[in-house]
Design goal:
- Keywords: Signal.
- InterPro entries: Thioredoxin-like_sf, Thioredoxin_domain.
- This is Thioredoxin.
- This protein has one domain: Glutaredoxin.
- It contains six helices and six strands.
- Strands 1-2-4-3-5-6 form a six-stranded mixed β-sheet.
- Strand 1 and strand 2 form a beta hairpin.
């Protein structure tokens, strides 16, 4: 009986700490609905304000195939955290580019963490407090838990070239 009670308590504590995926809130700083916290690609693609731009930008982006060829073996073992705003113009441009690159190389979704923030660039429950986010989107490339580099707001060259430069330390 004691083991059963312990198991039930553990289950409730896990559920209490669990975060709602693809959560939507009314953001007072933007005076509109936004997505917040951990999200999925499917979730942001169903969010009307983001979907409109994604559907227009994704098909037209043509990543550089030579850069992708060099990037692919390096990216297979890299984790990428994307912090974005569904309300943010730069996120609406760069995130579709990012997913076009990821799709072209067949990088698994498990290698990507997608976090949406409100208009004050905050998420709930301290989710991004240690990430030092000042602008969005921010693409953080890491390996074995160590940050290798980040692309903030807009790439210097192109998203794929900037990722390659980070992973080859250029």
């Amino acid at each position: 009986m004691k083991k059963l009670i312990t198991a039930i308590c553990l289950l409730f504590s896990l559920q209490a700490g669990a975060q709602e995926i693809n959560k939507k809130i009314q953001d007072p700083s933007r005076n509109k609905e936004v997505m917040i916290n951990t999200c999925t690609r499917a979730g942001i693609m169903e969010f009307p304000e983001f979907k409109t731009m994604y559907d227009a930008i994704y098909p037209d982006y043509k990543p550089d195939s030579i850069t992708l060829e060099k990037l692919h073996p390096l990216l297979k073992t890299t984790h990428i955290t994307v912090v974005m705003g569904t309300w943010c113009g730069d996120s609406k441009l760069q995130v579709p580019h990012f997913y076009k690159i990821i799709d072209a190389m067949a990088i698994p979704e498990k290698n990507i963490t997608l976090i949406c923030v409100d208009g004050n660039k905050k998420a709930e429950n301290g989710l991004i407090d240690k990430l030092n986010i000042e602008r969005v989107p921010t693409f953080i490339l890491s390996k074995d838990g160590k940050e290798l580099g980040r692309i903030v707001e807009s790439p210097r060259k192109s998203l794929e070239q900037d990722m390659l430069d980070i992973l080859t330390k250029k």
